[in-house]
Amino acid sequence: MEVLRRSSVFAAEVMEVFDRSPTDKELVSQAKALCRDYINSRLIRVGVSWSKPEYNMPVPGGKLAEVSTILLRLGDELEYIRPNVYRNIARQLNISLHSETVVTDAFLAVATQIFTAGITWGKVVSLYAVAAGLAVDCVKHAQPAMVHTIVDCLGEFVRKTLVTWLKRRGGW
Description:
single chain; mainly alpha; 7 helices
């Protein structure tokens, strides 16, 4: 009988691991990893380098690498369809890239505007494209450290606005 009880407990623990939905912290961490990967891809595409990888975070692996690939592909399509929307973000917003507060406030205002009529995967991709466009502007204007601010800001936006929605969809 004891063996049966132990095996039932073990089975329940195994199922919990497989059935467990991601935590808020995991979703935010994944969102930031995806953002860094997306930004890095865009910086490479425009021929500029981001030489201050202060976060020793691994690149997305496993399922998150698949999500990153899909996110980048969808971002390519979105940016191809509307190139003027996702380039020269700082100029479009008429902001200086020398102030962390200005960049953060501007990014959060755009992010909030994107999601005013609800959340969709397309809008999530758009959020990443805006973050990358702003990051490219920062690097081009000798403000590479500001890229980390954008990544953190996106993570905070995900925590406050998108986590519940992501959880309902099983995460990334």
